[in-house]
Amino acid sequence: MNNTEIQTPVNVGVDVGKANLDIALHPSGQFYTIPNTEAH
Prior knowledge:
Blueprint: E1 11-16, E2 20-26, E3 31-35
Antiparallel strand pairs: 1-2, 2-3
């Protein structure tokens, strides 16, 4: 058997703000916002 994997590049963007961290993934379009605290 041939175990060839197809890998798709993923780009991650992070916007660092005072109140929140905004994280976006491309090409999936997923988007996350989390509080910008010392815990993160």
